[in-house]
Amino acid sequence: MATESPANIIGSLTFCPECGNLLDMAGGDDDILLCNQCSCAFRTAGVEATEVITTSSERSFQSALKSKRHLVQQSKENKQARAIIKEKCPSCGHHEMEYHTMQLRSADEGQTVFYNCKKCGYKYSVNN
């Protein structure tokens, strides 16, 4: 027999008032809610009609990675000076270019060399 006392509703969670067990709101056609722990039964009248509205802000769920994002960003002032090589620029013919390398492909393949002309700003890359 279902008891007339309503289940305890906290936010979107429904608890058994007898034992405190979290009740499963499976959404069946029955108008009785059964506690799996103590076998108490409750009428679902008023329980299903509960509307829960939640809000959160961007700061509600802080990410450890997001909080450290400033550590990896570099400004133009902090950027390390790139190495200079005597290489002719294909665009303007200037005799010096800056370069840096990165390992973009698999470890058993060569690095990618990025060139930047100091005079005209022309950029290109070469896979070694």
Spell out the key features of this protein.
128 residues; mainly beta; N-terminal domain of TfIIb; 2 domains; four-stranded antiparallel beta sheet; two-stranded antiparallel sheet; 1 helix; 25% strand
What does the model show?
This protein folds into 2 domains: 1-52, no CATH class; 83-127, Single Sheet (N-terminal domain of TfIIb). Helix content is 3%, strand content 25%. It starts with 7 loop residues before the first strand and ends with a strand. The strands form 3 sheets. It has a 4-stranded antiparallel β-sheet with strand order 5-6-7-8, with no helix packed on it. With 128 residues, it is mainly β. The longest helix is centred in the middle third of the chain and has 4 residues, at 64-67.
